[in-house]
Amino acid sequence: KEILEKYHDLFTLQWEGVIGNMCVPSQAEWEQLLTNCSAFLFYGMERFMSHILLNWLAAMNIPKCRLVILLDLVRSQQSYERITNSDIHKSCLHIALERPTETAMLLSLTGVGSVIATQWYTTLQENAERLEVLFKSLLSSCKTTGQTVHILQS
């Protein structure tokens, strides 16, 4: 919340989404958020694709979304139990499609222009630091996504 408040004035007037852990977005809400945005940020626990139905995403067409930022792959005991219970009902191929590279490919096939994503499990603190760098570079310094990724890598 601190980072969002810090960069609030640099956001567009149409900033919308779900913040906090009080409610889990429905598939319809995910679809609305993804199809009506020019940029999408996911900052959450476990794999982004574990929150969205794979068949639903594969059928989507979201060319207006030019950038997706996935700050996921954070694990807690509670999220690990949730994902383990969810994965029991999925095939190995389905779980494989939820990995970072495969997720980026699926998003690209739906029309997303660029995807910035974590590649391995991390902590909330590390993702908060990444989010700070992303917002500073993309919003304050007006750097391109490529320049921003280069900053994140170093």
TrEMBL record:
<dbReference type="InterPro" id="IPR039586">
    <property type="entry name" value="CFAP46"/>
</dbReference>
<dbReference type="GO" id="GO:0035082">
    <property type="term" value="P:axoneme assembly"/>
</dbReference>
<protein>
    <submittedName>
        <fullName>CFA46 protein</fullName>
    </submittedName>
</protein>
<dbReference type="GO" id="GO:0060294">
    <property type="term" value="P:cilium movement involved in cell motility"/>
</dbReference>
